[in-house]
Amino acid sequence: MPFLRKAFPYLAIALGLASLAWAVSFGTLPKADFTFDNGNEIRTADPSKATGQPENRVINALFEGLLRSLPDEGWERKYGPGENVPMTPQGAMAESFDVSEDGRVYTFHMRKGAQWSNGDPVTAVDFAWSWRRMLHPETASEYAYQLYYLVGAEGYNTAVVQEGGLVEVELDGTRRDKLQAFPRGTIVRGKVLTITKPPEPPELAKDSKANAEAKSKAEATWKESWVYEVEVASVEPSAEDPDPKQISTGGKIVCCIDPAKAKSVDAGSLVKILHILPDFEETVGVKAESPEKLVVTLKSRTAYFDELVAFYPLYPVNRKCVEEHGSPNWTKPENLVCNGPYTMQFRRIRDRIRLVKNPKYWDEQQVQLQVIDAMAVKSETTTLNMYLNDQIDWATQLPPPMIPKLKQIMPKEFPSAPMLTVYLYRVNVTKPGLDNAKVRRALNLAIDKKNICEIITRAGEVPATSVVPPGLAGYTPPPGTQYDPKLASKLLEEAGFPSGRGLPPIEIVYNELDAHRTIAERIQQMWRENLGIGVQLRGVEWGTYLDLQNKLDYHVARAGWIADYPDPNTFLDMWTSSSQQNQTGWKNKDFDALIEKAGTEPDRKKRMELLRDAEAILIEESPILPIYWYVSKNLVKPHVKGWFLNSQDTHPLTLLRVDHENSPIGSAGP
Amino acid sequence: MAVSTPTQQDLSRYELLLQEAAQIRGVSLWMDAWRRLRKNWAAMISLWFLVALVITAFFTPFLPLQSPQFQLADKEHKYQPPNLERIELNFQLEDAKQLEREAAELAARLRRLPADAPEKERADLRLDLAAKRRDHPFNRLWNEPGMLTSAMIRARVAIFGRWCIPSICGRDELGRDVLARVFWGARVSLIVGALAALVSLVIGVSYGASAGYLGGWVDAAMMRFVDVLYSIPFIFVVIFLITFLSEETTRNRLAAWGIDQIAIFYIVIGAIYWLTMARVVRGQIISLKHEQFVDAARTGGAGSGRIIFRHLIPNVMGIVIVYLTLTIPSVMLFEAFLSYLGLGVKPPDVSWGLLMNEGIKVITPVAIFWWLVLFPGLALAMTLFALNFLGDGLRDALDPKMTNR
Amino acid sequence: MKGLLAPLIILAKRAAWTLLTLWLVYTISFALMWSVPGGPFKSEKKIPEAIKRNIEAKFHFNDPVWKQYLDYMWDICHFDFRASFKLEDFTVNEVISQGFPVSASLGIFALLFALLFGTTAGVISASRRNSVIDVAFMGLATIGIAIPNFVLAGISIIVVVFWLHLLPASGWGTIQQILLPALCLSAPFAAYIARLTRAGMLEVLNLDYIRTAYAKGLLPRNVVIRHALRGALLPVVSYLGPATAGILTGSLVVERLFNIPGSGSHFIEAALGQDYTLEMGMVLVYTLLLSVMNTLVDFSYAVIDPRVKLE
Lengths: 670, 405, 311
Hints:
The complex is a heterotrimer. Chain A is an alpha+beta fold.
């Protein structure tokens, strides 16, 4: 001990120095050619599972679909710096495509020489397989509905099986890895002869008082106990179990997902299965007729299907890579096989994703930047600091209070133009008081949207009079609404709540980000002053925020909607009764009918009229309160070339260049 | 040996002793400490500052401030720097009076309503009354104040009318007056600090005292438990707990018991700050429990509980108060920290932490709205300064060994 | 032989207590997680029930609670913290192993800064008692304690990065990027250590052995550094335990402000984003860390101060 005591100071110093040395040892990264802030950490780099803007940017760098959205040739000459450049879907993995007369069948001709980053060719089969994976219930893709335009896709995704239908059955216990849906286990294909259903659970009875959640739970449990008799047409052996026993082609199997619950039949004789799904190859409208030819059959004419194909959820993934490493390991930089302009060199959580140019990319000559860093930056203030300190070349999120100032001091680095995005409030029409359309209209009319745009957002946002943002060619919106507090309070009185008398207090839910709280506080005061309504605010985190809307557990909730494709439909079809994005509880048959009719209408002008009528209903009924239409807000360094404005605020990295010579030296910034 | 009976002489000597004792002005520990504390000017200034702060915070509604919630949201007043622009409360006194008269009339009608009146009529009257009350400018401008606050606002309007102190501390993004928000924020911050410290005091003192007094394996077990809790990173648990408790259904369930967000807040914070207090109190109690007065109490038939709470705890109050003055600052900082994470008080309530978090967001290289962070920051820093100095002063005053050095 | 055995037994005891603590934390966290209405897996989107079932099976949520409790504990005993709920591409182990070295490095820097600046300021203050320097240092120290670190960090970014152009604004990877966050993180601890050192020095300087040293004619500087400081540092060493805990906490804010990819920011995001598995992993790792640090501090305390005995 005494020795230790004497040595202690030296030991402590040595320990300090050693740890210092270790702390310093984190090497310096070589600088990337181009660095941008990508907002939040992305949830996943798997195109079939991702949602959101940060994911969009990364996935567009790593993967490429049949088509890709690009501006037309010569855009740099045609459009000025403050103008939106239109983008159209152009040939990518598919060189070209034909559409059948009735607009339902798309034939994509694959590009020769298109390769995965491991050197394999990209074929039509890759797409068919990727879409199958995306639709498979176990993938739980949030964007699966983007494929619902295809014949049979929704049925496959939600596992709807009927007597007489063709099915594929996955046998239990044949998978290589229980937790991985791909590679699949032994698949039995055939035809359903009979379905034996036990009696319905009491929750599903018409007069049942169980809530929606309990109902759907009971229904799922009930379905698991259904017993299917399947006439086997063919058996596909799995990789691990090449010789499936007991089942012979032409025979019959009686199977059930949960034999223990199937009371009617002797449980011992039942084959336990994992999934029973409609036969993908027979029922879903996608087929690789040859490696060079992909045929897609839609339920009905869909004018914007080419735009959907150019949107990242429909991008392909590499089967070999996914099946070898499994999910989520296949997205690790060391495993990832991709087909886009970049590959992932490394990914540091909540720091950056380093992208390096993919030499196997078919259009590799066009790609200028060798190394790109996509930084995950949580706070807008930090983003601004990094931009002003020359640590990033492109800032995608800016602190709202600083926007007017930034516009003023560095107008050249602040390109901004209207976007196809609407900021709105959802109203839960199932809550007492809010179930009255007059109340909802009163709420809408009592918001001084101009004040919000001028005082809070201040980047040139446009007060929304209707839902669909302006700037969509051929679309004339219905007459909208203007700020009118007098009419609002009159409507409220007509609804039976004069000066808010008797109306339960309203709670506004928003996610804690941006200026959402400030806007909510402003609207709180407007409603209180104009209508006499008590309003509470509730800021929550993103996950909770989504969850509350999902469960219709809110009064009023903010939302933003970015166009998935440049067509009014993207802003309207989400409010139909069956839409998963609706989340207001609002259901209107006329509206649904108009949207459906517009979907199949071949004449563009007529289609736009139908959509306009639908929007008129939406405004009249006001299940949503549109507040303003966005403008894009970016800071881009002057040495970045090839960056252009567009109405969806997407900026292909492939077009970007960095030119330090021909840019004003010493960029603005104090 | 025979028991000697007290003689007359003995008795008179005893009398004399008693007289002498009566003449001596006993100097209690507290008096002594107070005398010492008075000599420490830093501690005294801090003490007076804190007293003044608490009083002003309490009487904030009475001060001629602007409304902390009212938004003067136009281009001129957004982020308006400190200025002397004349400003008045945004309502007409007559309107308020009119509303009050109407409300009073409605209330009277409601009272006069015969017991067998139809339920509908009664409900209608109630609704009317509620609407009138909600329309009242006080409720609009001060977000439904309680009874006492309401009375103070009434007095403020009676004395100062609609006159307000101009925005000498500037305005925020929505044109709200920073000065008013700092004052109203003081109420929340101080209450959070004080109540959380109080919770920690109650738990810590009773836990520590019980452990110390009971001794033996009970003491060992109780203190081991404290040790275990010490190595839990509580900040993490608290964040976890607060996110969990603000979940809607849980929140509603708690609200049914009258526990709101802020209450959860100080209970949770208080519940983690008691550990040090428990240790300190236990140490003191152990050194005290063999003193004669404890034996005397026990001989007098007092039970353990009575001895602990009536005899021992008053004797450790000194050190407890010192720790209390040091706990409040850490609680207040913790509140600021939680506000920074967005887990603190919810608007329209304000606290200093919330104000500072809003303020620091607009301190950027392109524009600095310094008044938004300076004034709340100054308020918090000065309070913490004062508490620290007072704590140090009290420690010195109560622990003569330290000061005599 | 006996001299060696005793510390080992104490160590074993400590380890046992740490395990108990970990178990307790696990149980509390588990209980909290599972009592969240709707269960720990709240879907963010209305997904068909069939799909939900699949996900639940994947995370074992369809088992009885006691079984989940034991299974999860079993996994954790094997250092398998399972997959992150929200960072779908990573397991919790990967997140922790990426974030931890970053935080540790930041913490080490902060702790060293705190010790360096704190003791220096304390010693100078004590040896020039009531001088201008003393008042200035102690004033600074009080400010360090009285200002929330997010305010301090926000202001120092403006001053150091944009007015003085000394250091980069944020990020991680180079020494320059570590300095400012480490300084901001260390400020309150440096302040506290300065006050402790000053008080300790003042006490020690009045003791007999220092007087003797002076009387022997030793240089004042030598007396202060070789003799007085040693005694005065005892309270500082005992403060290192709480300081480590504090630095862990403080790193939550600093990492967020400076955009440092450490476990602090992972924890905050996990807590706010209800990423339960990640949160559980983080809480357990931090608990372990704190226990180890406390044990280390106690041991070193026993080593420097002969009066202290480990129990």
